[in-house]
Amino acid sequence: MDNNKTVDKAVTRIAKAAKGAALNIPVIPQGVLDVSRVLPAAVSALLALCLCFSHRPLAADLYLHGFGTLGISHSDSEQYGWRPTMDLDGSYDGQWEVANNSILGLQLDGVFNPRLKGSLQVVARQRQHNGLEDVLEWAYLGYDLSPGLELRLGRMGLSNYLLSDYRNVRFAQLWTHPPTEYYGQLPQHHSDGVDITYSHHDGDGLWRWRTGMGTTDLAFYVGDAFPGSGGEVDSVDMIPGYLSALSYETQNWRAQISVTAARMEEDYASGQPLRDAYAYLESLGFEGAADYAGRWETRGKWVYYGAAGVAYDNGQLLVQAELNQIDSEAETINSSVNGYLSVGRRMAALTLYGVYGYAHSNGDASRAPRYPVPGGAELAVVSDLVSVTTRANQQTLALGLRWDLHPQLALKGQWDRSWVERDGIMLFSLADLQQPLTDERVDTFSLQLDFIF
Fold it and tell me: For residue 82, what is the DSSP state?
């Protein structure tokens, strides 16, 4: 019998009894944009725009810029699907993935007077929905309160990592994709809110301190292995979110430290069947079942994020490293330490590089109790699976080559070898429950063309 169907029926049976009626599992709406179908025409259109505008002002103080990536990747695992971030489904053995690796973006910058400016950025990439609110990455106004002091209001890129200002602009990055161990757990790209930035020139260097607050969301691809998910993306709002970041930059160096705290506004919908099932078991007299149900609760829980990064580029040698510590009150967002080190050597138009990435969740994966009720064993199987999919224990060694064909066009190829531990598979999507989870070595090859205009 199909193990997925067995688990679905078992969890449904227990949750039905809890409700005394048919299980009403919220299903995330369908409608993922198939970027691979529209990408060729869109790339042609943007390249045409490139010839028309090429960084020229649309009006006296309006400037249009664009960027894009046409990419493809292949991974060799039948069970673990490689993906750039955890809000996407992965690609498995035998599949060539285009949508997850391709991006199209436009950015409009305006200077309205010497003190007031603004930015608008729209990005088409693989996501669950591509409505206006989804594709709108930036939409903010900035006002200079005084020399060196700026207030911004609206939707802005998150400022807690080195790639904050150009995470979607792959041309501005050395690699085919940001290191997965670090950026794979950060699917958030923007925040709606307000921040204030103080800048101070110190000799040849620039100090910048930014603090602000706003709201964002934290999403992950649930997958078909989870009852009621519909194989889609589940997310929760994080309100409020507080950020403070300090950076220092010279001609060759850039360093930054940041701290972030955010409270989750709601519970993940995909965890509702588990919460219902354990609450019902508690009503039957199984002591501690309700406490176990609390493992899948996120409402009102806080997540704390501390990060440090440094980058060096003297024109030939490129070194970049970031390290973060995530502390969470919710078990569905496991506390962890993650980081990477990237080293590259530029030789004229070619740059050879290597990357080492590391992700490690704290503690051990939890093991659910096996309650002596119909479906109890199957419920425990699902609970254990959810536990390992909220943890990341893996390392990756990557080698790549970048070829700058033109000042606005680059071709990149990269090979990643990841060592994934079976008790921490969060950064990979899971094919199904028919295969036992194992430690596995996964090889992924990616090839892409990046451009700007």
Answer: B
Residue 116 lies inside a defined structural domain of this protein: no
pTM (predicted TM-score): 0.85
Q: What is the pLDDT of residue 3?
A: 43
286-291 contact pairs (CB < 8 A, 24+): 286/371, 288/369, 289/369, 289/371
Q: Quote the CA–CA distance of 15 and 383 in Å, as a whole number.
A: 14
Listed residue (270, 273, 244, 246) closest to 259, CA to CA: 244
Domain-located, residue 273: yes
Q: How many residues comprise the chain?
A: 453
Asked, for residue 260, whether it belongs to a domain, the answer is: yes
Return the DSSP state at 16: H
Q: How far are the Cα atoms of 42, 105, 354, 400 from residue 413, in angstroms, in the given order?
A: 22, 21, 12, 6
pLDDT value for 9: 53
Sequence-separated contacts (24+) of 371-374 with Cβ below 8 Å: 371/281, 371/286, 371/289, 373/14, 373/281, 373/284, 374/10, 374/13, 374/14
CATH number, domain at 416? 2.40.160
For the stretch 90-136, pLDDT in tens is 888 878 999 999 999 999 999 999 999 999 999 999 887 777 888 99
Determine the structural domain holding residue 283 and report its residue range.
3-40+70-98+162-452
What does the alpha-carbon distance between residue 444 and residue 180 come to, in Å, rounded to a whole number?
Answer: 12
CB atoms within 10 A of CB 123: 23
Question: What's the total number of domains in the chain?
Answer: 1
CA nearest to 99, candidates 221, 250, 234, 9: 221
Q: 183 in a domain, yes or no?
A: yes
